[in-house]
Amino acid sequence: MRAEYSVTEVSWATHQQQLMALRFAVFVGEQGIAAEDERDPKDPECRHFVALHDDATVIGCGRLTPEGQIGRMAVQAALRQTGIGSAILQHILQCARHSGSNAVFLHAQADAAEFYARHGFISNGETFIEAGIPHIGMHCHLA
Question: What is the CATH topology of the domain spanning 5-101?
Fold first, then answer.
């Protein structure tokens, strides 16, 4: 399946329902993460980024916390491996850079570490369990 889409920053207030619907489908529905682990009181203070299908449907998302942590990266199952995740991540990195950040970090699911490494992230530390899934800490300098 191919989708025409654009990547943009959105407000939590206006896109909360669409963001949570996608995140619940991916993290709770597909990966079995507990719903209470997906709900995060930090969401209102984060910067949210989406891939919007040409019909304005959210087909991918990610967020950046005030501390510089990238997270909640998700793409609809049928649209994975099409470049949407890369486009979202590149947009987040560009926005962080333009905001004056020198570096960002994330907790990558272990099976996604290679994806982040292709975008300049370097692993730091050992694998750990977060929300029942193996993760690894990674960082990226934004020089």
Answer: Aminopeptidase (3.40.630)
Instruction: Give me the residue spans of the domains in the chain.
Output: 5-101
Strand runs (DSSP E) across 2-132, as ranges?
5-10, 47-53, 58-64, 69-75, 103-109, 122-123, 128-130
Closest-CA residue to 106 (of 56, 140, 141): 140
d(CA 69, CA 139): 9
The C-alpha angle 114, 116, 118, rounded to 5 degrees, equals: 70
Residue by residue, pLDDT tens for the chain (143 residues) are 456 899 999 999 999 999 999 999 999 999 999 898 888 899 999 999 999 998 789 999 999 999 999 999 999 999 999 999 999 999 999 999 999 999 999 999 999 999 999 999 999 989 999 999 999 999 999 97
In sequence order, which residues have a C-beta less than 8 Å from that of residue 141 and are 6 or more positions away? 102, 103, 120
pTM of the model: 0.94
